[in-house]
Amino acid sequence: MIFKNLKIGNKNLQNRISVSPMCQYSANDGKPSAWHYKHLGSLVCSGASMVVVESTAVSKVGRITNQDLCLYNLKHLRELKKLVKYLKNLNNIPIIIQLSHSGKKGSSHVPWIKSNSSLKKNKWTTISSSKIKKDEFWPYPKAANKKEINQILYDFERSAFFAKRAGFDGIEIHMAHGYLIHQFLSPISNIRKDDYGGSISNRNALPMSIVHKLKKITGKKMILGARVTASDHLEKGIKLKESLNFIKLLKKEGINYVCISSGGIKTKTKLNTKKKGIRVSFAKNIKKEISNLVIGTTGNLSDLKYLERVMKNKCIDLAFIGRPFLKNPNWLLSHAHKNGELKFIPNQYLRAF
């Protein structure tokens, strides 16, 4: 099953493994650096059928750190267009960009410099659904007003238009991991009393508006996906039923795939990060209820015998795998060789197997 074709929108994936978006915090003024060419160059030749480029900020205030990849001006567009062309020349597989807004998780130190810590210098005022801190020692964000919500919508729309011009095959909207859209979706972080808070439909309003606008840009030629939270793993947070109904709405708006994630709205939750296939059970339940939508998931999926079984049991259509590719960009090629799938191995590397 792992090496079986999969169609997403009008794109054909040659197998069922995609590289997950992974922040590198290595951009120069928002633009890709030499590191991105090295990092993504190895990933497009890794045997994966699709690569999702890291979380890319739609605005300056939407960055996590000062070293984030960004796509909100023409300089960013020009440099990302060069990067896409370079990657496509290496291997012409679908390349997706994940668009995101950090919300109150922004103005942060690069994690290997100071983990889970807000900036004291070169900082900015973050924005969120409500005036609730990320963590105890973090500053309060500003609760977005209607004008600022309209600006957020415009920012996502502009970045999506730039992504199309840059030559990306699709866009993944980041709606999980405690970032801005998740901050609007979750009752843990959204205590608004207006049209964007309170009821589930009100909390869904901003993300649904973003999807509606972006689908007009992506149309049928580009993939439009979303990384979605199945559960906040907290008593008063998002539960599977709410997530399931939300994904049904996403499908109606024309989303081509969802990647099921969970947790992240608070630093500490009940999520067991050491469990194999952390979110497979969530994805299986969602797949049972929703047909004709590609369902993927992420989290501890690198045991390929386990993953084969999960796919044969129709729990998921697609696996989004990240850190194993960082540890060894060629780990999937070894598995492909063992299964006689030599077409995934670059000709230049065949003699090594």
Descriptive report:
- The structure is a single chain.
- This protein is α/β, with parallel strands linked by helices and 353 residues long.
- It has a single domain (6-352), classed as Aldolase class I (TIM Barrel), CATH 3.20.20.
- 34% of the residues lie in helices and 15% in strands.
- It has ten helices and twelve strands.
- The chain has helices at residues 34-44, 74-90, 146-166, 180-185, 200-218, 240-252, 280-289, 304-312, 323-327, 331-338, and strands spanning 6-8, 11-13, 17-19, 50-57, 95-100, 127-128, 142-143, 170-174, 223-229, 257-261, 294-298, 318-321.
- The chain has an eight-stranded parallel β-barrel, surrounded by five helices. The protein has a two-stranded antiparallel ribbon with strand order 1-2. Strands 6-7 form a two-stranded parallel sheet.
- Helix 2 (74-90) links the parallel strand 4 and strand 5 (95-100).
- The longest helix has 21 residues, at 146-166.
- The model has no long low-confidence stretch (mean pLDDT 97).
Q: How many independent structural domains?
A: 1
The profile of the biggest β sheet is:
8 strands, parallel, barrel
Class from secondary-structure proportions: alpha/beta
Low-confidence stretches: none
Please trace the helix and strand order, writing H or E for each element.
EEEHEHEEEHEHHEHEHEHEHH
Helix percent reads 25-40%
Q: Please name the CATH topology.
A: TIM Barrel
Q: Looking at this structure, what is the CATH superfamily?
A: Aldolase class I
Please tell me the overall pLDDT.
97
Distance between the termini: 22 Å
Strand content: 15-25%
CATH class: Alpha Beta
What overall geometry do the principal axes of the alpha carbons give?
A: globular
